[in-house]
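Structural prep section.
Before we set up the soaks we want a predicted structure of the protein with flavin-adenine dinucleotide in place, mainly to decide which crystallisation condition to try first. Input record follows.
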Amino acid sequence: LQGQSPVVEAMVDTSRVSGLDRITNDNDHIIIGCAVTHTQIVHEKSIIRHGTCLVESCGVIGGPQVRNVATLAGNVAHALPAGDGSIGLLALGGEIEVADASGSRWMALEDTFLGPGKSVIDHHRAMLTRLRFRPTEARAGSAFTRVMRPQGVALPMISMAARLQLDDSNTITAVRISLGPAGPVPYLAEPAMDVLMSGPASPEQFNKA
Ligand SMILES: Cc1cc2nc3c(=O)[nH]c(=O)nc-3n(C[C@H](O)[C@H](O)[C@H](O)COP(=O)(O)OP(=O)(O)OC[C@H]3O[C@@H](n4cnc5c(N)ncnc54)[C@H](O)[C@@H]3O)c2cc1C
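Run finished without errors. Recording the tokens verbatim:
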């Protein structure tokens, strides 16, 4: 449709497939259907509390008109290096469910980006049906921020998100930091994560990272 596929014989519109427009919970995950819009995510109490960086990242995408119709699934499936929702979900350790004629499987989000605009999801044969992440619990949290050029309408200079888990003595016991557009795909800043892991949650450590 964007000049890459000269013939389109069939399209799937997920927006009215029953059940795919819902945010649900199982025992371990918050699960987001592929037709859920950014606006739904931004107003969902469980994600505000247990997946804050996803709310913050979906909340800066476009304007209200875009957020009211655009989906997190579309942001992820498009695999753009500056995909804000993708960067938020990546920090949370998100996974996506990909379905095709042979069945469906969950994949770690970081394994799905192949290059700018290229995803493991075969757009001719497969669909991203759901996205999920483990909610942050006690002594854990996440946040997202984006640095824009002064005019504010171009691509961001950088978007980043982080998820941290602390123990009772404020030692970091789990950390994920995601970045984009700083390479061909949204990615985890592993050297910075290594600096923080098992150390104190202190301004000095954060500056070092
Ligand atoms: C004015 C404007 C401002 C924007 N600002 C931002 C921004 O600030 N940050 C940002 O990250 N993005 C931005 N975007 C890009 C875009 O709106 C978002 O990435 C949005 O989340 C895409 O979701 P969508 O549902 O509209 O997907 P679409 O645009 O409909 O789809 C994108 C691609 O993903 C595929 N796809 C969609 N859903 C699925 C699925 N379930 N399974 C398999 N493939 C699928 C489509 O076939 C297509 O190739 C902006 C767009 C506009 C028009």
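Observations: The helical segments are 38-43, 45-50, 52-58, 64-69, 72-78, 84-91, 190-196, 203-208.
Flagged for discussion at group meeting.
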